[in-house]
Predict the structure.
Amino acid sequence: MVFGKLYSYAGNPRTTSLLAVAKENGLELEVVDTEPGKGVSTEYLKLNKLGKVPTFEGSDGYVLSEAIAIAVYFIPV
């Protein structure tokens, strides 16, 4: 089961670290290619009003948009 979606683009260092944390904790993520430099959709701006990456949207609809907060969320309690 997919844990959630991670919006970002290949080569983003924050995303690379988040993917490592997710893998270490056995979380399956769907990566949605989102590159703010090329523009973002209005749908994405509903998730992150600043239009920055990375942004995480959980399968339950929970949204986080700061890399450290996302990494902490990926670590089981």
